[in-house]
Amino acid sequence: MNDRESSKLQEGKDFLSQICEAHGISGAEDELGDMVAWAFEPLVDEIRTDALRNVIMLRRGSADNGPSVMLAAHMDEIGLAVTKIEDEGFIRFTAVGGVDPRNLLAKEVLVLGRRTLPGIVGIKPPHLISPDERGKAIKREDMFIDVGLDADEVRKQVSVGDLIAFDRSAEDLAGDRITAKALDDRAGVAALYEAALRLQDLRHDADIYLVATVQEEVGLRGAMTSTYGIRPDMGIAVDVGLAEMPGVPEERSLKMGKGPGIGQGANIHPHLHEKLVSVAKQQRIPNQKEVIAHRSGTDAWAMQVTRSGVPTAVLSIPLRYMHTSVELVSWSDVRDTAALMAEFCGSVDREFVEGFYHENTG
Amino acid sequence: MKELIRKLVETFGVAGHEEPIADLICDEIADDVDEIRRDTLGNVIAVRGVQNDGPTIMFSAHMDEIGLVVTHIDENGFLRFSNVGGVNPHRLSDQRVVFANGRMGCIGHERLEKVTDLKMEKMFIDIGCSSADEAEEHVSIGDVASFLRPMNDLGDRLVSKAMDDRIGCAILIQALKEMKDTPNRVVAVFSVQEELGLRGARTAAYQVEPDLGVALDVTGAGDTPKARRLDVSLGDGAAIKVMDRSLMTHPAVKGLMVRLAEENDIPHQMEVLEFGGTDAGAIHLSRTGVPSGCISIPTRYLHGPSEMVDYGDVRACVDLTVAIAGAENLDLRR
Amino acid sequence: MKILARLSEADGVAGDEQQVRKLIREFAEPHSDDMRVDALGNLMVTRSGDPDLPAVMIAAHMDEVGLMISHIQKNGLLKFYKVGGIDDRVLPSSVVRIGEDKVAGVIGAKPVHAQKPSEWKKVIPYDKMFIDIGAQSEDEAQKKVKPGDYAAFATEFGEMGDGRLKGKAFDDRAGCAMLLEILSADHSVPLQAVFTVQEEIGLRGSQVAAWDLKPDLALVFEGTTCADIPESEEHGYSTTMGEGPAISIMDRTSVAHRGIVSQLVKLAEENDVPFQFRRSTAGGNDAGPIHLTREGIPTATVSTPCRYIHSPVSVLKESDFENGVRLIELFLQSIERGFRP
After folding, report:
1. Which of A5, A312, C58, C63 has its CA 20 to 30 A from that of A269?
2. pLDDT digits over A17-26, tens only?
3. Chain A partners (3+ C-beta pairs within 8 A)
4. How would you classify the pairing of strands B56-62 and B185-191?
């Protein structure tokens, strides 16, 4: 590895840490979007945001009649929202996106009010818990956040509907593993960034739309409106996939460090699947098979049925502990995903698009 | 305004069968708008300020109400039915219902081992007929019925069936009457089939292509004994929605609503709803996306025959609607 | 019914409709002015007709429920996912065909001898079942199948009883066959016949097809629920076999356009075509996304009642099918005579 490559590597990894530590709960991705746009700015020709605040970044292709490819990673993360301020100053909350409440107890959070208030999801000490209680999970609606202020002061700073983010810094672990909150799907956003870096040195016919989408966690909403606006010839959603760990059946998980899962199933156009597999093989990019029987649960599920339909594919970065504040990925998987996307973009032309509509193949 | 509300809630308009309520609404607003049209699904789309070059604001209140649909008529003239929208069987027992043609019926059920066995398949409507032939003179398979309940005026509070969402319709109609000159194109949509999945608003928003979407709809209230934990109370003013299952309110829209409420001394409260959705959910995903929000009317006993609202809240919602319609220099794109 | 026989025996689990599409293409070719496939795999067959008449989209879905191989175990047995809504209880002892090479396999379960009587009462969840293709090791299995391969039920088409037909995937090959019959007749109404994909996993194909075609109105043909069987009460039948095609009122995804429904009823009564209403609001079909497309499209559904759908074998009555086709033809003729929804 030469110096240039190693500095690039660090750049991408730093970018990932930065965006993971920033907050962008579904519906409130503005500031994060600015951060993303700022980072990508030197790598793209055009940046715009749409009404829902998707960040849409275009890197123009070299062909006049090149195809358009949409690469989407969602930048929003799950979080919490204030539902009520109790008279003692404790804050009740609901979930934004799929949160398993059992991961919340005794975790530090940030209440994003007029001022950002640090808080803790409180719980009784074990000494005072009856054996009966101990065996039962506490329901989310019975949990509370303690910000250490009395009700009057809390009400001055916080109102119903304010969002609450997990307070967690990103950490490098052994090998090339990284832990952080919001790796779902900031790892995907980082893969877009790495892909954009690689595309600097790569010839591509295609116009490439790098899209950091919003509100995926609450129903693939950003993908719907951004795809509608872009009208791409094809799209790839890069998201995270369940990685192997105790309790997850082997057939439902990806291996860490073995490259992106290339999705296969109804949400994936067979030509795109074949192309991704062949590009990976040609370029010797590690990858693995991911069988997705129907609903992929990614932006591709929305992209595919936009307007007259869009051929889509899914790339999954293996991730452990999904939807907690200690998500974990392997950096090599992020890089391999980026390499595959970039090489894919370099390999498609108008003819490839026309192939989607030729019957004898599809 | 109470008379307007009474007329609206007592008129028939089960989801998918909104013609009677649509006719009434068209009559009520005829003098206050520049044009009215009805679309394929039956939405009423009215425009005020057609010539204005300001942004287009789409307000949407749904006309449809929940109800029942006849699926089978047995040999003794009993009608089996299914739900139209979110109807809980436990709240149907012993209710009276009415069909579009005015035929009344009451609801009975088969003998049950225990109360929890009550399912819609075990219930029937008795319209007082003793044979299938006789019943078929009044009702056919596919006909729909609504709760039969008049409005009661308790002073500050009003109770009726179908407050969801005729109260939103009343607010929008009243706001159209009270609106002053505005630079904006105001499009008032009285939507259909909201209770079946925000359907009318979806096709309406596609046609209207608004710059701003605002739904007017009911929300729950958490101010009754041992209620679900929901910080919305009757009498505390218009509820400005922050989120529900269908929408994360656009921050700029939420900001606009709060600012207008404060500037105009309109009582208001913030609302986070952990269930349900409104037309704003459909509007904000139309085409390339529409900044959208929702003014909610706190309502007790939703989807039952006795939905209760506070008249002061209703007034606050009218005022907020008027304020939004008249807002100048709207720029929500950033 | 030769067409239905071939359609039924073709395999087209949602997401893998190629084989069915190829077959339909062959049947539709002589009756089409234009034929194309879209990004999702919908087959769109256009017949131009009189441009002054409204364009009618007629749609039926090609896909069926089925399985997908998720994993090959060390012992050569295959784990699988379900594609579409299948009751786990119909799976044990089913025969399936896997992948392009149609590798035969059976869904095994523990023999009764090895079970305690108390186990019989329990439903075996699909993720505890496996498909046995006779391979004795992972290596051997890998030579024949791979994860991601689709598996369809292996069921032969045939006749039974008094004018009844049995076979797999009548939901919605019955609809496809109706559509082909209509295409083969003479009409001056411009027809956009769409054989849709991925209905069973979320009504996905019809959504983009309707967007693309912008029809003036739409009719959906289904093979629909029919539960006129023991242990089911009359008001739970949904439809009754032999009482004619079923006209939908509403289901979870749409309220049928009442103008079209009353026209269908009127035509059926005037012409003595037996018909019934679909007396259930459960389930959903392509009419859902179609009617909400763009500004909204008047849409209705006409179905052939089919018993035991979403299982390895379904049953329909030929007369219901034929009367359904007749009713649609009368409807198209009435458009030619000036009917507008």
Report:
1. C58
2. 999 999 999 9
3. B, C
4. parallel
